[in-house]
User: Fold this.
Amino acid sequence: MDPHLMDFYSARLLFVVLVADRPGRKRHLYDETVIIFRAKDSAHAFERALELGREQETDYPNDKGHQVRWALVQILNINHIGRSVDGKEVASSLHYRTSKESIPPDHIFHPEKSKPGESF
Assistant:
């Protein structure tokens, strides 16, 4: 099937970072990533998310010589986006931040002055 005729989907993947410096521990670093891809239906989207997530698994020695492993733990969700991704929200993270100063409800923000970086 022509990939351009397939719909877009997003998947939130959960990875764990394991370091082979001890037999095991309870507290680990986790990474949630959101990927976008094309699929013909929801079953195919799950297969693609699994395939793409497994492709992101990696292992390497850290600066202390311990083996570090990034492992796919779970596919947290899959969302159907549609034929176009233009302007669609694919991820969101609601969280608290503390400002140096109070922000009144009528404060005017200036997002046009933003200097965004790249996340990877």
